[in-house]
Amino acid sequence: MWLPAVMDLRLPILCLLIVAESSLGLRNVRVTVPTAIRKGEQANLYCNYEMEDKERLYSIKWYKGKREFYRYTPQEQPSMKVFNTVSGVEVERSLSNESVVVLKSAKASGRFSCEVSADAPSFHTLIVSGDMEVIEPPVDKPSIIGTQTRYRPGDILRANCSSLNSKPAANLTWTINDMQVLLQQTRQYRPIKDESTGLETSILGINVMVSHSHFIKGKLKLKCEASIHQIYHESTERFLEEDRPRILATGSSSGHNPNMFQSSVYDGELTDQGDRYLTMNGYKADKASPPSSSSAGMVVGSYVKVCWITFYICTICTVLLYSLRVGIS
Ligand SMILES: *[C@@H]1O[C@H](CO)[C@@H](O)[C@H](O)[C@H]1NC(C)=O
Ligand SMILES: *[C@@H]1O[C@H](CO)[C@@H](O)[C@H](O)[C@H]1NC(C)=O
Ligand SMILES: *[C@@H]1O[C@H](CO)[C@@H](O)[C@H](O)[C@H]1NC(C)=O
């Protein structure tokens, strides 16, 4: 413990006076640190407190984790002391004072604590902490991989969005025409960590059956957004075109069961473990629906095709025979 070391001398006095002083003296110590900050940016750490008129400040101490890096003692000369032993902390002396400590460039995440002590006789001491996370945003915008240029209603839109090398891993979301895609239509892969840099790559898959209503003036707007707390927001868009439905194709696509697509998509991904996808009820429901219904859809589809072809052949034959007979007579 580090507190006793600080208070060892004053503890007996504190105990004697605590009854009288506890409701007075020092109170309302507040620490304000940026919860998220870009790596390399200047970080201002504030420590505020209230004190009775008859009390005086003895010292303000700042710690990162358990290690003290800054001490302000107004009665001493010099009143400011900086300890350069804490990694990732470099104090800008000219901008720091009793109420603010300025770090030249944020380097490492951590817990920052401010300890305020009142002067004799109370030596009343309070300590308050705040966490600061140092962010390394990705260099590039998120990228969309795996889309086709054209989709027909009934097709499966399947793609990945990835945001490379950031700390922490970026949060990804998919939108279609600016509407967020349902969770069960996405697949969150585990972030991939580069062990040498500590940076992480996020990947989010999308898996949506395209319908005619997705196309506005023949285009579907697919967007992937990447964000890291309030610090980083970037997005990438793709406009996908609607393929004109062919006459023969309408018969077979109306016979499709949406479950057929979903179960065929999810089956291949079953082997991954610890996946959010697998816990979805949606998956079980899809799995339960008999595959016969989907193959029945295909059989119906091919019957329709056969009927059409037969119909065409018959029509052509009739026309040919008719013209032959007209020619003979
Ligand atoms: C500490 O410095 C900041 C600017 O860096 C200033 O606004 C503030 O008034 C100073 N506080 C004290 C107590 O000197
Ligand atoms: C998406 O990424 C995952 C993991 O890297 C990969 O297994 C999958 O094939 C990708 N899917 C597409 C459509 O690119
Ligand atoms: C990602 O989103 C979750 C939920 O909104 C949030 O709690 C988390 O802090 C976010 N992470 C990042 C790195 O932005």
UniProtKB/TrEMBL annotation:
InterPro entries: CD80_C2-set (IPR013162), Ig-like_dom (IPR007110), Ig-like_fold (IPR013783). Residues 1-25 form the signal peptide. Residues 4-129 form the Ig-like domain. Keywords: Disulfide bond, Membrane, Signal, Transmembrane, Transmembrane helix. Coiled coil: none annotated. The chain crosses the membrane at residues 303-324. Pfam families: C2-set_2. It comes from the Eukaryota. PROSITE patterns: IG_LIKE (PS50835). This is Ig-like domain-containing protein.
